[in-house]
From TrEMBL:
Species this protein is from: Pseudaquabacterium terrae
Domain Response regulatory: 10-128
Keyword entries, A-Z: DNA-binding, Phosphoprotein, Transcription, Transcription regulation, Two-component regulatory system
Protein name: Response regulator transcription factor
SUPFAM superfamilies according to UniProt: C-terminal effector domain of the bipartite response regulators (SSF46894), CheY-like (SSF52172)
Coiled coil: none
Gene3D superfamilies given in the database record: 3.40.50.2300, Winged helix-like DNA-binding domain superfamily/Winged helix DNA-binding domain (1.10.10.10)
Modified residues (4-aspartylphosphate): 61
Keyword Zinc: no
């Protein structure tokens, strides 16, 4: 009993709108009873908490009060003090613009307000908490320097040829599926099963484009994800 209590996840919820904060808190508590959730409503209070506590998960908004990019500053604080802490950004800012920015800052995932359901939010939160719980020993992360090393449920830093790939969780899941089935055509319908929201072909194509861009940051000539018209995608990169 004592062991489970000491391992109870601790979540920081940073959102300046109290009703929204309470709603998100209620969703988390309904999915994971007993979880410790600390609510912060402004940048200063949140920064003080982050400076003294390493959370298992941080859920934050980008805009806090009159400060339009307070969340960016908070992510930088997390990266400086507690690098590797999962960060889920929940914001009204357009995902098409801000998802890439948050990815570059090492946020694990981005949900745009009014476009996701309670189930989407809970699935994302629980997946991140499992990633922290099941994080492998450091030695395991160094394996496979000449190929893809990725497990979206257990690590936040996939590696390609020993170098870090900057990818949100959904893109990691698609990449892991393509790589696991390398040499085979993976249909759109099969890829829909690893996409929590936006289960349509256009959204999958955008995720694949993000994956290609990330791989080309490491290997500029990378062309190992093949588009199979009307069917899906195939990992065709040589080992």
């Amino acid at each position: 009993m004592t062991t489970s209590e000491t391992r109870s996840p601790r979540v920081a919820l940073i959102e300046d709108d109290p009703p929204t904060s309470d709603q998100l808190k209620g969703w988390i508590e309904s999915a994971r009873p007993g979880i410790r959730i600390e609510q912060w409503f402004d940048r200063d209070a949140a920064e003080a908490a982050l400076a003294s506590t390493r959370y298992d998960l941080v859920v934050l908004d980008i805009e806090l009060g009159r400060e339009r990019h307070a969340g960016v500053a908070l992510i930088n604080t997390i990266n400086r003090l507690h690098h590797g802490t999962p960060v889920l950004v929940v914001s009204a800012m357009p995902a098409a613009i801000y998802r890439g920015i948050m990815k570059a800052l090492d946020a694990w995932d981005y949900l745009q307000k009014t476009t996701f359901s309670e189930a989407d939010f809970i699935d994302t939160v629980l997946e991140m908490l499992r990633a922290v719980r099941d994080k492998p020993a450091p030695a395991a992360a160094s394996a496979g320097t000449t190929e893809l090393a990725i497990d979206p449920l257990r690590q936040s830093t996939p590696l390609w040829r020993g170098q870090r790939l900057n990818l949100p969780l959904t893109a990691q899941r698609i990449l892991a599926t393509l790589y696991q089935r390398r040499g085979e055509v993976v249909s759109y319908e099969e890829l829909f099963t690893v996409v929590k929201s936006g289960r349509n072909r256009d959204n999958v194509r955008k995720h694949v484009s993000t994956i290609r861009d990330a791989l080309r940051e490491i290997e500029p000539g990378f062309d190992g994800i093949e588009n199979v018209p009307m069917r899906g995608f195939r990992w065709s990169a040589p080992q």
